[in-house]
Each structure stands twice: as C-alpha cells, then as structure tokens.
Design brief:
With 259 residues, the protein is an alpha/beta fold. The chain has one domain (2-69, 94-250): Spore Coat Polysaccharide Biosynthesis Protein SpsA, Chain A (Alpha-Beta Complex). The protein is built from eight helices and 16 strands. Strands 1, 4, 7, 8, 10, 11, 12, 13, 14 and 15 form a ten-stranded mixed beta sheet that branches. Strands 2-3 form a two-stranded antiparallel ribbon. It is globular and about 65 Å long. The protein starts with a strand and ends in a 9-residue tail after the last helix. The mean pLDDT is 89.
C-alpha cells in the first residue's frame, strides 16, 4: 500500500525557524521531520511513498537524490575513473520514493487529485509531512477494513485550533469542522486510509482544500470513519511546536520513534 505525504505548503507560520527549506525539511533532532514520518510508516511495512511537492520542492528532491552520499561512508577509487562505493550506515532504509510536482500554489485537495496516476486503483494512506505520532498504523488499517468506508481519518486530542471531528458510537463521522473554537472533542490528526473511490470526491480544481468540501462530502455520504488515537501526536506548525519537538529529541524522549 502506497503512502502519500503532503509536502508542498508554504509553512508561513514557521518561517521564523527557516525560510531556506520547506517545512517538511526542517530538522527535528538531526533529521528532517519528513524523515521521521517516513520511518514511522516504514516500521509498519509501508515503504512505498509518493511525495506531493510544491513550494521549494527542489530541496526535497535534492535530499533524496543525494541521500546515499549524505548518510553513507564513501570510497572513491580514482584509479577506476572515480568509481564510488557506498558503505551504507542505514541498511533498513529500503524505501521507494516518488517525487511529484503538484504545483507551487495548489491546495491540499488539489495535490491529492494530481497524484491519482501513481495510486490508481489501489487503497492508499495519506498524511502530512509535518506531524509526528506513535499511532499504530496496523491497527488503523485493520479498523478501516472493518468499517468498510471510503475513508478513515485518525482523530486525536490536542488544542482546538485544528479541524474538529465528531463521531458516532459505530466510528462513523457525523461532523468535520475545520479549525473551530476548542470544544474538547477529537481533531483531525491526519494519518488517513483511503479507497480508490475517494478521488470521486475531489473536484478538478487546484484550489480544492482537502479538509473542507471533500471531507464534508464523505460525512454526508456516511463514508468517513474516525480511528481514535489517544497516544502521542504533535504537529510542527509554529516555532513553539518546533522547539517542543527538538527539546524532546535532545532529552531522548521521542514517543514518535516506534522503530
């Protein structure tokens, strides 16, 4: 099952941390937050990635194109025309990464619609490139299969400045409200599982916001389920969030590090 990661936003609220790289490439500890997200998925056996690039996408391309050179010990044999041998320091990084330019100013729903050719006809996972969690992805997929809906979103309980989810006792969403006042309910933590028919809920326009009309359409059709996650979840939306995650990394307290 492929994992689609949204990596193309402008990250305007965190530019005081770094304006030279896109938000998914801002480091937590000594690695980009995107790398931590991908390690999490790979731990659960999901090693095929499709990255939705946009703003400063070339920085992400460069990271993966030069990943082996950046993370390995090298032997360069100039007696053999500079032949290079990589002595891998991370043998468990066996990922397949597809880098798709989904447009500089395209919104989240438009980005997902543009990657349909790379996941056509398959169930796939979707998340954001700036949020860390210890969510059990195996349990998430199993829940999605039991529910039999087009989509499942992971519901978490941080501050109420994100999209709030309300679900019924059978795990079906009854509301999806983007960035409400805090009410103490679940909010969208990303970590979606989506069926191929999800693309039928995406209008063919680049200004489509995933968290608005597509989610409300699924709720109206009773096709959005909510997987409740009561463990760790933290996005990196602001300088404060970045500081918090890096303080945790420095102390060796990394609850998202399930691998």
């Amino acid at each position: 099952m492929k994992t689609v990661i949204l990596c193309g936003g402008f990250g305007t609220r965190i530019r005081d941390v770094s304006s030279d790289v896109p938000k998914p490439m801002i480091p937590v500890g000594n690695r980009p937050i995107l790398w931590h997200v991908m390690r999490h998925y790979a731990h659960f056996g999901h090693r095929e990635f499709v990255l939705c690039l946009g703003h400063q996408g070339d920085v992400i391309k460069d990271f993966f194109l030069n990943y082996r050179a950046r993370t390995s010990t090298l032997t360069v044999d100039f007696a053999r025309d500079g032949a290079t041998t990589y002595h891998a320091s991370e043998p468990d990084i066996d990922w397949s990464v597809t880098l798709v330019d989904t447009g500089h100013g395209t919104m989240t729903g438009g980005r997902v619609r543009r990657i349909e050719p790379w996941v056509r006809g398959e169930r796939f996972m979707l998340t954001y490139g700036d949020g860390l969690s210890d969510v059990d992805l195996g349990a998430l997929v199993a829940f999605h299969e039991r529910q039999g809906t087009v989509a499942t979103v992971t519901g978490v309980r941080p501050p109420g400045r994100f999209g709030e989810l309300v679900s019924s006792s059978d795990g079906r969403a009854t509301e999806f409200n983007e960035k409400p006042q805090a009410t103490g309910g679940l909010i969208s933590g990303g970590f979606f599982v989506l069926e191929p028919s999800f693309f039928g809920h995406l209008d063919a326009r680049d200004d489509l916001v995933l968290e608005e009309q597509p989610m409300r359409s699924l709720v109206a059709a009773k096709q959005l389920s909510v997987f409740q996650h009561d463990g760790f979840w933290q996005c990196m939306d602001t300088h404060r969030d970045w500081t918090l995650l890096n303080q945790m990394a420095e102390r060796g307290n990394q609850p998202w590090k399930v691998w």
